[in-house]
From TrEMBL:
Residues 8-178 form the Plasmid pRiA4b Orf3-like domain. Pfam families: PRiA4_ORF3. It comes from the Bacteria. This is Plasmid pRiA4b Orf3-like domain-containing protein. Signal peptide: none annotated. It comes from Candidatus Chloroploca asiatica.
Length: 206
């Protein structure tokens, strides 16, 4: 069956999060690694401020392949990996990749292909079909610092400056899959990589 007639369902888990922060998303079968990156950013709640990379074994050779923006000095000519289709690497027998975001805070995600479905052409993709708990705030210092923030929030001992810095109304226990809005990957690429003014004033809008 042609890849464009399929939908790939992925489960995303933020490693070392306790309680577990996770999402399930569906993307078109012909999605590229750039498309999947943008969908993960939007579903998790990241703001795409930092570098990222996927690492996955090749389905035949089992040698690790890397896709993404992980070295600006080498990748500044639009890396071909961005255009690689996700379905060329993920199969139900080769179902798991590591997705790293923000190499300073070192957010590590497990990305696992959990199902391959027939595409519903009346539905809009990507879409978020499940999940739990809010994403950590961007640039909060990594998982260890995030755990400290959660502890201080629970004890009502969080420093006032840090409380003010948190996103307004931040509730670590709250996540609504229906509230996720997915960006246009082409507009995100034009704005964030090429600085293209034609991308419009709202590069992450729909």
């Amino acid at each position: 069956m042609p890849t464009q007639a399929l939908v790939l369902r992925f489960r995303l888990e933020l490693q070392r999060s306790e309680p577990l922060i996770w999402r399930e998303i569906e993307v078109p079968g012909d999605a590229t690694f750039w498309d999947l990156h943008v969908a993960i950013q939007d579903a998790m709640g990241w703001l795409d401020y930092h570098l990222h990379r996927f690492t996955i074994p090749h389905p035949r050779t089992k040698q690790e392949r890397v896709f993404g923006i992980h070295n600006l000095s080498q990748d500044c000519d639009d890396p071909p990996s961005w255009a690689s289709q996700v379905a060329s690497m993920f199969t139900l027998r080769n179902d798991t990749a590591r997705y790293e975001y923000d190499f300073g805070d070192n957010w590590q995600h497990t990305v696992r292909l959990v199902d391959v479905l027939r595409r519903d052409f009346t539905a809009r993709y990507p879409r978020c079909v499940g999940g739990a708990r809010a994403c950590p705030p961007e640039d909060c210092g990594g998982m260890y610092r995030f755990a400290e923030i959660l502890r201080d929030l629970a004890d009502d001992t969080l420093d006032e400056d840090l409380r003010t810095w948190l996103p307004q109304g931040y509730d670590p226990a709250r996540f609504d899959p229906a509230a996720v809005r997915f960006s246009d990957p082409a507009r995100r690429l034009a704005y964030s990589w090429y600085g293209n003014a034609d991308a419009g004033d709202d590069p992450f809008g729909e």
